[in-house]
């Protein structure tokens, strides 16, 4: 009798777990299929390489793709080194003292802050405090104290920083103590142990975690809403160096961005019905871009795993 | 505890390491209780005792490696060539170069065999290829591994057998030219054949190095060591010439342990 009940429970929970797992997959498939079917028909070279035209009801999304790539690169430059350095400090240099507990708690709380709050913080801190501060200090007319790619990227970097720190900490913790001991016993300094033993071992884990969090940040809308994203820009955020005629990304210009483009096309556009194909196309491009980032994370992991064997 | 003058077989060489009233805490737990003993130059000293008696802690206190991962407290002194290694002005990097260590489980780096041995010298700035080649060959020869690996120095160390890995770890320790070798149950993860090879190696190495070895294998201590200390609950119960300990122990509890009545 009891045995039978145990078996029923066993089957029941197995079924329950399986059902829920399928539900997750189903949701993913539903999203992807819808977006791919409706978006694939729109995507062609013109869509990818042209500017929006006719009051943004036709044309392409090149400025948004360009802006997303620029801001992601800027975010990577700011967030990854800082995140990795912070994690190394927490794992390798601080013990379990009061200070490190406070830092850890702050990071965990930071990771739980809603992204719109980061957006507002970006306005308050980067634009109004730092930007306006610079303007005032040097007597510029409104120059740095307005929405710009740099401030948007800084806000995004802040958003993904805690995630990078936590994933890097995990990667560092997974390096066996015995290897650290071996290096210390040979007379290595702390930095030599980190540099020659811990980092090479943790490399693939650190990179994968960092790239995944970056791809998460690249699709965010709320943090860049007020800090640098533009509804429409007739020009790319590019600055040509005088005489040399070399174009460079201008981090103090505003920019267009895929995630924001989807948002305005769906809610603020002059004609939402006509722009629907553009919305799907833009969504698909954004998904593909983040997918490419995730793919590069997987490739990195395989590459480093092979190398460390 | 001192070995009595005139004990048969006790040819007093220079004292390389001297523990003087060493007491060692992990947090609040006392792991070693007021131990005084000597390790003689170019001799093998074995530390035996049941699990958890503080054997490993004892030798790890000499190169100060336990304080990396643990919260430790030390009273008393550990004198290496009459200099307390717990003095404030001691250079830990230099201490650990002079006192090499081989761990319980082989822990080669996941790098090539060559890079494993060259790891230590590189830490000290050696990067001359020819010089490194020499050090690698010399160290691997001394650890009796050269003939087995000389044709595959660039292959990963992870592909070696357990015994070979442990000899590689010995070679790695030798590559920085230490004076003392600490061995923490170096054979406990190895099969009998590999163990025999390591034991031969120790016999050979003691010509050049002062060796302190922790073992839970009494026959091993009897075979390879010149001096033996018996630890129980963090206290040094008896310390003497190995033959004396094994044939004529002073204390009943030593005899009981050696004859296998407990432990």
User: What string, H for helix and E for strand, traces the elements of chain B in order?
Assistant: EEEHEEHEHHHHEHEHEEHH
Order of helices and strands of chain A: HHEEHHHHHHHEEHH
Most extensive interface, chain pair and sizes: A-B, 21 and 29 residues
The CATH superfamily label of chain B reads P-loop containing nucleotide triphosphate hydrolases
Number of helices of chain A: 11
Number of domains of chain B: 1
Helix content of chain A: over 70%
Count, helices of chain B: 10
CATH superfamily of chain A: MetI-like
CATH class of chain B: Alpha Beta
How much of the sequence lies in strands of chain B comes to 25-35%
Total beta strand runs of chain B? 10
Secondary structure tally: strands of chain A: 4
Q: State the name of the first-level CATH class of chain A.
A: Mainly Alpha
> What topology, given as strand order, has the largest sheet of chain A?
1-2
């Amino acid at each position: 009798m009891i045995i039978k009940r145990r078996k029923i429970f066993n089957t029941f929970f197995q079924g329950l777990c399986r059902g829920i797992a399928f539900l997750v997959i189903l949701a993913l498939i539903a999203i992807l299929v819808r977006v791919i079917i409706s978006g694939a028909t729109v995507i062609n070279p013109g869509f990818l390489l042209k500017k929006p035209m006719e009051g943004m009801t036709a044309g392409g999304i090149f400025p948004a793709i360009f802006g997303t790539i620029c801001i992601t690169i800027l975010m990577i430059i700011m967030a990854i080194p800082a995140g990795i350095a912070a994690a190394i400090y927490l794992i390798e240099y601080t013990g379990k003292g009061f200070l490190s507990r406070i830092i850890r708690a702050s990071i965990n709380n930071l990771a739980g802050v809603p992204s719109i709050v980061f957006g507002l913080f970006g306005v308050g801190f980067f634009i109004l405090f730092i930007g306006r501060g610079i303007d005032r200090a040097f007597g510029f007319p409104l120059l740095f104290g307005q929405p710009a790619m740099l401030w948007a990227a800084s806000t995004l970097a802040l958003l993904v920083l805690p995630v990078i720190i936590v994933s890097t900490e995990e990667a560092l913790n997974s390096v066996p103590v015995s290897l650290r001991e071996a290096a210390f016993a040979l007379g290595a300094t702390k930095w030599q142990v980190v540099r020659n033993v811990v980092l090479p071992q943790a490399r693939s884990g650190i990179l994968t975690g960092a790239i995944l969090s970056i791809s998460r940040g690249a699709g965010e809308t709320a943090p860049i809403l007020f800090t640098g994203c533009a509804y429409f820009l007739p020009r790319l955020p590019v600055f040509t160096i005088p005489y040399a005629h070399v174009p460079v990304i201008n981090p103090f210009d505003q920019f267009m961005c895929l995630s924001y483009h989807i948002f305005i096309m769906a809610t603020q556009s002059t004609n939402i019905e006509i722009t629907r194909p553009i919305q799907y196309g833009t969504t698909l491009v954004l998904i593909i871009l983040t997918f490419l980032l995730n793919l590069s994370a997987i490739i990195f992991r395989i590459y480093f795993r092979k190398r460390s064997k | 505890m001192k070995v009595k003058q005139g004990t048969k077989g006790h040819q007093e060489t220079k004292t390389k390491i001297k523990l003087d009233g060493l007491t060692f805490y992990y947090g609040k737990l006392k792991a070693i209780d007021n131990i005084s003993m000597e390790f003689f130059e170019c001799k093998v000293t074995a530390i035996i005792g049941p699990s958890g008696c503080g054997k490993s802690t004892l030798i790890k206190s000499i190169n100060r490696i336990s304080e990396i991962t643990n919260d430790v407290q030390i009273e008393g002194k550990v004198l290496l060539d009459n200099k307390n290694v717990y003095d404030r002005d001691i250079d830990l990097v230099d201490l650990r170069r002079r006192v090499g260590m081989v761990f319980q489980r082989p822990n080669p780096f996941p790098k090539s065999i060559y890079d494993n041995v060259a790891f230590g010298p590189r830490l000290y700035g050696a990067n001359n290829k020819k010089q490194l080649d020499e050090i690698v060959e010399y160290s691997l020869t001394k650890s009796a591994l050269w003939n087995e690996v000389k044709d595959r120095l660039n292959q990963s160390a992870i592909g070696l057998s357990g015994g070979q890995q442990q000899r590689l770890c010995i070679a790695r320790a030798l590559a920085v030219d230490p004076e003392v070798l600490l061995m923490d149950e170096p054979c406990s993860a190895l099969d009998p054949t590999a163990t025999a090879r390591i034991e031969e190696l120790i016999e050979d190495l003691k010509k050049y190095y002062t060796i302190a070895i922790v073992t839970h294998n009494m026959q091993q201590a009897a075979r390879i060591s010149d001096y033996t200390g018996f630890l129980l609950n963090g206290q040094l119960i008896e310390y003497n010439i190995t033959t004396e300990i094994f044939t004529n122990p002073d204390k009943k509890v030593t005899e009981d342990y050696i004859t296998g009545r407990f432990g």
